[in-house]
Amino acid sequence: MRAETQNIVAEIEKSLELLKQRSGWETAQHRLEEFNAMSEDPDLWSDPERAQKLMRDRQRLVDQIDTIRGIENELADQVGLIELGEAEGDDEVVAEAEAALKELKERAAQKELEALLDGEADANDTFLEIHSGAGGTESCDWAAMLARMYVRWAEAHGYKVE
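^ that's the sequence the OP posted. Answer follows.
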């Protein structure tokens, strides 16, 4: 396997470790079993707010587990495909698998960012104020360009901007 491909695999594995750390991977399966047991309790549905919170937390955990397992499985598949292609001398298969690894790296990096922005207050709104200070016309222009840059970044990353 080429050094560039090994670096991509290492970056994906690093993202996976961060995702596992942020999700509490060691206890995730146990927590899911607890959520499933609680959701089967007939008394749960007498308190709709508690039931909704439980089901929301359960679904979030299921999504985290599925995401991590999906990335792990795809990584193993693509690495195996590269090794098979190299053993057979099929450069086309190797190139396709390397391209798929690059896409997987981007997806893993996106999931890593989402995991980092998954704190208690991270779903809340925010205000961003940019002041030009006492610099005159040039500093006002700079502040306007900076504001436009932040708005474009937020829109490109799926945030709602007003």
